[in-house]
Design a protein that fits this description.
heterodimer; A: 449 residues; alpha+beta; Cytochrome-c3 Hydrogenase, chain B; four-stranded mixed β-sheet; 13 helices; B: 306 residues; alpha/beta; two-stranded antiparallel ribbon; 8 helices; 7 strands
Chain lengths: 449, 306
């Protein structure tokens, strides 16, 4: 006779999920599973649509990272139609992408995750929120809210829509940047970078420096990692090659278009979410907590593990300090929060770097495209991890097939392992209270699903 | 004001993407002001209020003066959650176009659930087999007013941040929120001459305009021959200013839904094209004129069409 304890819904995450903890007769954790239930059907209903419309349809996969889907699709459709955007087209797309990373990272750390650390994992749930944080530290909360809004407003002023964007188009971008817009964005970008550095200093002092061994062990598992780097091994969000790292740190690289040779998708009988595993390792797939096979992670920690360095100075200094302390690859699940704020600094530095590239105000932003039959894969690094869109078009340039691997899908398998590890470490003989359940959720929250 | 004395706000998301919630969080200082005036009692994105121990049998939701529901309804679980929200909230707001008209996810209504499951989980790949129990899904994606009584419709994909706060503030003051009833075109400053192209083309090259000039000097995109849903889409996306997609020099695709709530964007657009002498046969994908409003039985699988 077993008992199942459910956490429903998992909260302060960016979607719908449930955790089931299975206890045996002795009250020990026999299994623990994360269920993410969703049948949206995007791979079905994009079929038949003109391919150039896809970037503004699939953005609705996620209202938190719509730019990522918008851009992965635009890059994929470029490839379907063999349309090569001019340099300014790519620069403007990447600018929007890194700005979108900025708001997302502020949201996740301060609105969703930080209440656990700053207000305590135990105690009244109603106080453990961004609203509670606003009462405890009103100046910090006000700055967080305003800086997130600033990033979103910069996007809207330049690109029209910030949520469910429309400005990336097959062949490039829909409008060039004016000099006035450039100056406006530079001022905003500098304000965001200043804030990002303060935010990281604050979090290091108030949160990360206080991580105890228990925190670093919460939901920690030994897995491989996947992320994107350029030809020199620098961290990249917008383009580059995919680098897959084994748990021992050995790496291999592949082009996004070859993803199906290196990664494989499957469905476990008990799960409604697809899982992805490393086909390239030739060890199959197993969620056995003692000996997982084929499991890798994506997201902030994964990207910082796979890259050799970051090409912007402040983020690079932070990466060096992080790596000196935790090694490479770092496996601690909660370290994803630290990595997230290092990436926030990188994203802000990258905003200014892109704006300093004289080509970004070139008026030629789009190469006209012709519909044709083809297949195109597009990928970007989304806040939640590597995002791959794969489309096939017919002679009229309409979609005949689509396959989408979103960031969270890669992380379904490791999140299940982390939930089980956290539950097994915390639950002793069936003694379960609200704080313990929240700590199990914290292992999931670190992945930002 | 103590937490107990404040009006209570309850928020749920159904067949949704979190974009509406992001818009609410984009309100900046007005968000901070709002948080001082209400007590949030349920909001899975931001707070740890759970459904209680009755998982499967129902949901335990706190009572609230105002309830916001984003997303349409696509599963039995979402339907049960929606009904509980209706019972527990005095004023229920359909928050965003998915809730009011189905939104993008209702494009799925052109296929049956079984067809969609077979496409998303293609068994012929061997390694992907369906783990879904098809019976947990409704036959199609519904707008929430097809299932429960709705007090206020706040369309938008997503609604404009200041509009969201304005609606909540009006409800708190006991007033009827004022939302625009004008179309996107009536908010659009581009130049219309009445003598446009007689056909529409796909958006494969950018519109013609001088990027150094203000948007008011650009020719109407529909008159340039680009399919633009402005005439049949309710406005408000740009606040009092230029609609957002037009600011990006990109044609409207109808994301706020029809001008009249019960309108049909497909029929309305074909009428608008006909009255301007534009040949609709050039439209590659006519059913996508219902891209954001395919609930209410408007989008159906081919075998169910008349």
């Amino acid at each position: 006779m077993t008992q199942v304890i459910s956490i429903q819904p998992v909260t302060r995450i960016e979607g719908h999920a449930r955790i089931d903890i299975h206890l045996d007769d002795a009250g020990r954790v026999a299994d623990a599973r994360l269920h993410i239930a969703a049948l949206r059907g995007f791979e079905q209903f994009v079929v038949g649509r003109p391919a150039e419309e896809i970037p503004r349809i699939v953005s609705r996969i996620c209202g938190i990272c719509p730019w990522m889907h918008h851009l992965a699709a635009a890059k994929a459709i470029d490839n379907c139609f063999a349309a090569t955007p001019p340099p300014a087209g790519h620069l403007l797309r990447e600018l929007c992408q890194v700005l979108a990373h900025v708001h997302d990272k502020i949201l996740h750390f301060f609105f969703l995750a930080a209440p656990d650390f700053l207000l305590g994992a135990a105690g009244d749930y109603a106080a453990r929120t961004i609203m509670g944080l606003a009462r405890r530290e009103p100046e910090l909360a006000a700055e967080v809210v305003r800086m997130r809004q600033l990033g979103q407003t910069m996007l809207e002023r330049f690109a029209g829509k910030a949520i469910h964007p429309v400005a990336a188009v097959v062949g490039g971008f829909a409008k060039p940047m004016s000099e006035a817009e450039l100056r406006d964005l530079q001022a905003g970008g500098q304000a965001l970078l200043d804030f990002a550095c303060r935010a990281l200093d604050y979090a290091r002092e108030k949160v990360f420096a206080r991580f105890e061994d228990d925190d670093l062990a919460l939901g920690t598992i030994a897995t491989g990692f996947l992320g994107t780097v350029d030809g020199q091994g620098n961290l990249r969000f917008y383009d580059g090659v995919l680098r897959l790292m084994r748990p021992d740190g050995a790496t291999s690289e592949f082009a996004a278009a070859d993803y199906a040779r290196h990664l494989a998708e499957r469905v476990e009988p008990w799960s409604t979410a697809k899982m992805v595993y490393a086909r390239a390792w030739n060890e199959g797939f197993s969620l056995d907590p003692e000996a997982p096979r084929g499991v890798y992670r994506v997201n902030t920690l994964a990207r910082l593990n796979v890259c050799d360095r970051i090409a912007t100075p402040r983020a690079q200094a932070e990466l060096e300090a992080f790596r000196a302390r935790f090694g490479r690859p770092a496996q601690g699940t909660l370290l994803a929060h630290w990595a997230r704020l290092i990436e926030l600094v990188y994203a802000c530095e990258r905003v200014l770097e892109l704006l300093a590239d004289a080509r970004i105000i070139d008026p030629v932003v789009r190469t006209p495209a012709e519909p044709r039959a083809g297949r195109g894969v597009g990928h970007v690094e989304a806040p939640r991890g590597t995002l791959i869109h794969d489309y096939t078009t017919d002679d009229d340039g309409c979609i005949t097939r689509a396959n989408l691997i979103v960031g969270t899908t890669h992380n379904i398998a490791p999140m299940n392992l982390s939930v089980r590890r956290a539950a097994a470490g915390l639950v002793a003989e069936g003694e379960i209270d609200a704080e313990l359940l929240n700590r199990i959720e914290m292992a999931v929250r670190a992945y930002d699903p | 004001m103590s937490d107990q004395a404040r009006p209570r706000l309850s928020c749920e998301w159904l067949h949704a993407c979190a974009g509406c919630e992001m818009a609410l969080l984009n309100c900046g200082d007005r968000l901070l002001g709002l948080l001082d005036r209400v007590s949030i009692v349920h909001f899975p994105l931001l707070m740890d209020h759970k459904y209680g121990d009755r998982a499967g049998a129902g949901f335990d939701l706190p009572r609230a003066e105002i309830g916001l529901v984003s997303g349409g309804v696509a599963s039995r679980e979402q339907l049960a959650l929606l009904r509980t929200m209706r019972e527990s909230c005095k004023t229920l707001v359909a928050f965003g176009t998915c809730a009011t008209h189905g939104g993008i996810p209702a494009l799925r209504n052109q296929w049956t659930v079984d067809q969609t499951l077979r496409t998303v989980f293609p068994e012929d790949e061997g390694e992907c087999s369906s783990a879904f129990d098809g019976s947990s899904f409704l036959d199609r994606v519904y707008g929430i007013d097809e299932q429960v009584a709705v007090d206020l419709f706040l369309p938008g994909c997503p609604p404009r941040p200041e509009t969201i706060v304005g609606v909540i503030e009006a409800l708190l003051a006991g007033e009827q929120p004022q939302l625009t009833e004008k179309s996107v075109c009536e908010h659009c400053p581009t130049i219309r001459t009445g003598k446009g192209q007689r056909t529409v083309r796909r958006f494969l090259a950018n519109a013609e305009y001088d990027p150094g000039e203000p948007i008011g000097s650009m020719r109407c995109l529909l008159e340039q021959g680009l399919l633009c849903m402005g005439p049949v889409t309710v406005g408000g996306c740009g606040g009092g200013e230029t609609p957002l997609c037009i600011r990006a020099r990109v044609p409207c695709r109808g994301c706020y839904g029809p001008v009249r709530r019960n309108g049909n964007q497909l029929l309305d657009m074909l009428n608008a094209l006909a009255s301007n002498g534009i040949d609709h046969r050039a439209i590659v994908d006519r059913r996508s004129l219902l891209r954001f409003s395919g609930a209410h039985g408007l989008l159906k699988p081919p075998e169910k069409r008349r």
